[in-house]
Design brief:
11-stranded mixed sheet, 2 domains, OB fold (Dihydrolipoamide Acetyltransferase, E2P)
Length: 346
């Protein structure tokens, strides 16, 4: 461990409390119950469409769907969770989920919200089950919200080999003539869109998280965010001989996160440090980097064709632009930013 890392550990041992964590969850309804899905695992939310059912499938698989050039399983989550098998309708949704390298989908009645949740309010369930599909619960608008363990859920959906003799989720899909025509039309529209522009235009909206630093407003795509951490109760140590835009290091759950000031990084201005701000940790397995925000704003849905490309600097495209109601938002292209050598001190 380096001298700087030792300083951080010593500071924590002297009474500094670790930062509070926030995570983004997609909130859905399944029958009369409310569930939360870790939003970093949610690729898309699509309107219900026609599913293929070429042969006898496991009873929990309602059908197959072509997504991003792949055929994926669409699971009837009600049968997986042993919920009363009430029918789906044309307003139901398909949620595309990725866990590690596996992609699958679940059917839900409605997508209610995309919400940042302080993880300190999550309560572990006081029992164990065979599969542990529910990992914790919390209160959402005076209702119990169940947080799904998507890794356990995905493993069971993809590996359970029942005979298909039970009540099938396929039976819960509307079969009247009008509904079949609508579901067929939606499927053809998805196919047409993905043939023209694979995957990126499959959904006409992407979810971004907005935040402010001084007078500037920024956005980061939700899937590029690992978590939010309050800086007020955590010790940040300045690292000697580093660029001005590197504010310091913090220890979050054993990971040493390099905190970047985007004002200094992107605009070469004097670094801005807000002790009451929030660290937004970027989603990367290889790099441990966060950016410091003064305040976290609303989630914004931005269509791909609404994003404006700014004049490139140093042949990079790390910063783009979005304009809404006269407000200018600077969109951080996280993969491009993480690929820039200037972030890393040699």
């Amino acid at each position: 461990m380096s001298n700087m890392e030792n300083q951080i550990v010593e500071a924590e041992q002297n009474g500094i409390v670790e930062a509070q964590e926030e995570k983004i969850y997609t909130i859905v309804s399944i029958s009369d119950d409310i569930y939360a899905l870790d939003a970093k695992n949610v690729l898309e939310v699509l309107k219900f469409a026609e599913l293929s059912h070429p042969e006898r499938l496991p009873s929990h698989i309602a059908g197959l769907f072509e997504y991003d050039g792949k055929i994926i399983n669409v699971a009837d989550i009600k049968s997986v969770l042993n919920i009363e098998p009430t029918p789906y309708d044309l307003n139901s949704m398909i949620v595309i989920i990725k866990v590690q390298d596996d992609i699958f989908a679940i059917m839900v009645n409605k997508v209610i919200d995309v919400k940042r949740i302080d993880t300190s309010i999550l309560q572990k369930i006081p029992y164990n089950t065979e599969h542990n599909f529910i990992e914790s619960i919390f209160d959402y608008n005076a209702m119990q919200c169940n947080v799904l363990n998507l890794q356990s859920l995905g493993y069971w959906i993809l590996n359970n080999r029942d005979t298909g003799e039970g009540k099938s989720g396929f039976d819960l899909i509307p079969k009247d003539e009008h509904s079949l025509a609508v579901l067929r039309k939606r499927k053809l529209e998805y196919i047409e869109k993905t043939n023209k522009n694979p995957y990126a235009i499959l959904s006409d909206k992407d979810e971004f998280v907005s935040f402010s630093v001084c007078d500037n407003k920024y956005c980061i795509k939700m899937n590029d965010i690992r978590g939010f951490y309050k800086l007020q109760e955590i010790k940040m140590i300045k690292v000697p001989c580093t660029p001005e835009f590197i504010l310091g290091l913090v220890n979050i759950k054993g990971d040493f996160i390099c905190v970047v000031d985007v004002k200094s990084y992107f605009h070469s201005q004097h670094p801005h440090y807000n002790q009451t701000g929030t660290i937004i940790v970027l989603n990367s397995d290889e790099f441990k980097i966060g950016v410091l925000a003064d305040t976290i704003g609303d989630n914004i849905q931005i269509k791909p064709d609404e994003i404006l490309t700014l004049k490139k600097q140093e042949s990079r495209n790390e910063l783009m632009q979005y304009v809404k109601d006269g407000e200018i938002y600077l969109i951080i292209n996280v993969p491009e930013m993480l690929a820039n050598d200037k972030l890393y001190v040699r």
